[in-house]
């Protein structure tokens, strides 16, 4: 949710940000301005009437103490009360209209976000590692995982449906190895571990910005007021909802593993094979709460932290900065990290690190108290550290050898107790 000053004082900044994003609203911004003015006027009237009613109440009390007739003032107070009720009902209706529009506005872009209309205009920041040349034909991760008995997508399709998978035997152990490796790495660098709930209420989804805009992309329980989380960002960010943090506690950095659940509405025909795009997947998430003046440094920090995982796994990758037209709804600035996929010889997103400024904090009402100052909203950031399924897919393709074996990345050997997984002899 935006600071109301963008509507009342910095309207040009709001207009420019929407234009750069290419945001198409189903209402006119001027209608929002008019609604805001009407609400201000209405609330001022209600406040004035309440003051008059309070004054009358004191006068009535005095008259009754003196055993004098207060009926005229009582009637006047009743009429004022009726008017307050009438105006309050109007105020609730206008406020509902206002919030319906207000919650549709995306975050304000930071000034240095590159302008562009779509993902083709994202900016490559840097590359890490030169992809090695293979002297054999690399198998796609879905075929390789199946051949070694590590991955079973067909049976998952039978048990559940499309875009689900079983990790089997040593494949399941590799998932655990990756999870433990990532969490150990982040904890060693000062992140506090959380194990969050996978179901959250509607207020939590509003807090991080999934609602109301992305309702169709979420799994919702039919008979209970809960949603399955699309990312650990939701429960972890809402950990401090409606709280005031101490200045000394900031920055607070959390790392959390969770399963994630997404309907993938609109993804028909994309990545139909393999484990790149699934309805259920595993991910380690990094979430930061900080002072506003620290958020740019924290964005660089979590982006470096996510890269650290890939560096230790020795997987080639690149970092790109998202242009204005490709930026997420709640983000003010985002870096994506894309890992090299050896079979397709291209780069695929494996982490997205974003600075949400105070957008989520306003929705979730997360503040802090600076020393000697008034309470302020924190800035929130998050990033994947990393998506486990996509990391595993990259490993299956990049670490296979010409004999069909899987070489275990050196950093994972202590976690799985093997240096290789051999191809079945047949």
TrEMBL record:
Keyword terms, alphabetized: Aminoacyl-tRNA synthetase, ATP-binding, Coiled coil, Cytoplasm, Ligase, Nucleotide-binding, Protein biosynthesis
Family: Belongs to the class-II aminoacyl-tRNA synthetase family. Type-1 seryl-tRNA synthetase subfamily.
Residue ranges of domain Aminoacyl-transfer RNA synthetases class-II family profile in the record: 171-409
Catalysed reactions listed for this entry: tRNA(Sec) + L-serine + ATP = L-seryl-tRNA(Sec) + AMP + diphosphate + H(+); tRNA(Ser) + L-serine + ATP = L-seryl-tRNA(Ser) + AMP + diphosphate + H(+)
Superkingdom, taxonomy of origin: Bacteria
UniProt free text on domains: Consists of two distinct domains, a catalytic core and a N-terminal extension that is involved in tRNA binding.
GO annotation, biological process: selenocysteine biosynthetic process; seryl-tRNA aminoacylation
Organism, as annotated: Thermodesulfobium narugense
Residues reported in the UniProt entry to bind ATP: 262-264, 349-352
InterPro entries registered for this protein in UniProt: aa-tRNA-synt_IIb (IPR002314), aa-tRNA-synth_II (IPR006195), aa-tRNA-synth_II/BPL/LPL (IPR045864), Ser-tRNA-ligase_type_1 (IPR002317), Ser-tRNA-synth_1_N (IPR015866), SerRS_1_N_sf (IPR042103), SerRS_core (IPR033729), tRNA-bd_arm (IPR010978)
Alphabetical list of PANTHER family matching this protein: SERINE--TRNA LIGASE, SERYL-TRNA SYNTHETASE
EC number: 6.1.1.11
Function: Catalyzes the attachment of serine to tRNA(Ser). Is also able to aminoacylate tRNA(Sec) with serine, to form the misacylated tRNA L-seryl-tRNA(Sec), which will be further converted into selenocysteinyl-tRNA(Sec).
Residues binding L-serine: 231-233, 262, 285, 382, 384
Subunit structure: Homodimer. The tRNA molecule binds across the dimer.
Parts forming coiled coils: 25-73
Molecular function, one GO term: ATP binding
Entry's Gene Ontology cellular component terms: cytoplasm
HAMAP family: Ser_tRNA_synth_type1 (MF_00176)
Pathway terms, separated by semicolons: Aminoacyl-tRNA biosynthesis; selenocysteinyl-tRNA(Sec) biosynthesis; L-seryl-tRNA(Sec) from L-serine and tRNA(Sec): step 1/1
Name this polypeptide is given: Serine--tRNA ligase
Compartment(s) of residence: Cytoplasm
Pfam family, one: tRNA-synt_2b
